[in-house]
Amino acid sequence: MYSEKVMDHFQNPRNVGEIENASGVGTVGNAKCGDIMRIYLDIDEDKVIRDVKFKTFGCGAAVATSSMATELVKGKTVQEALEVTNKAVMEALDGLPPVKVHCSLLAEEAIHAALWDYAEKNGIQIEGLEKPKADISEEEEEEEY
């Protein structure tokens, strides 16, 4: 069912919490399943993600994908973080059951939402970043395959 890595990140999530005065905060949800994910980024003057935290309300897979997504972007530049896809999150977790793929999409969108917030706060544009969706519906997920 779930890989050992998914179980490890669910039972021992990394980077849980909030960052006060975060450089960027992104919140996304999936109204159909009820998962809500919030990612906080602390980005330095060189556009490197110094720290990242998350708070997730949802199933075990949502917690695990949030945890792994924070691990994948920590220490990366803003541009490198933008390139972290839901597929990268799933691969890093050794896969997810098909019914839980939407959790990895939430993680990708939460990163993008936090980067969008950072860009707006700083009056900059991040090449390739599009305005994120606040709600990831299943119709949109099906387009991802």
Which terms summarize this structure?
single chain, 145 residues, alpha+beta, three-stranded antiparallel β-sheet, 43% helix, 17% strand, globular
- Anisotropy-based shape: globular
Percent of residues in helices comes to 40-55%
How many beta-strand runs?
3
How are the strands of the largest sheet arranged?
1-2-3
Please tell me the overall pLDDT. 92
Distance between the termini: 21 Å
Helix/strand layout:
Elements: H1 4-11, E1 24-30, E2 35-43, E3 49-57, H2 60-73, H3 78-82, H4 86-92, H5 101-122, H6 138-143
Antiparallel strand pairs: 1-2, 2-3
Structure, explained:
By secondary structure, the protein is an alpha+beta fold. The protein contains 6 helices and 3 strands, in the order αβββααααα. It has helices at residues 4-11, 60-73, 78-82, 86-92, 101-122, 138-143; strands at residues 24-30, 35-43, 49-57. The protein has a 3-stranded antiparallel beta sheet. A hairpin with a 5-residue loop joins β2 and β3 (49-57). The longest helix is centred in the C-terminal third of the chain and has 22 residues, at 101-122.
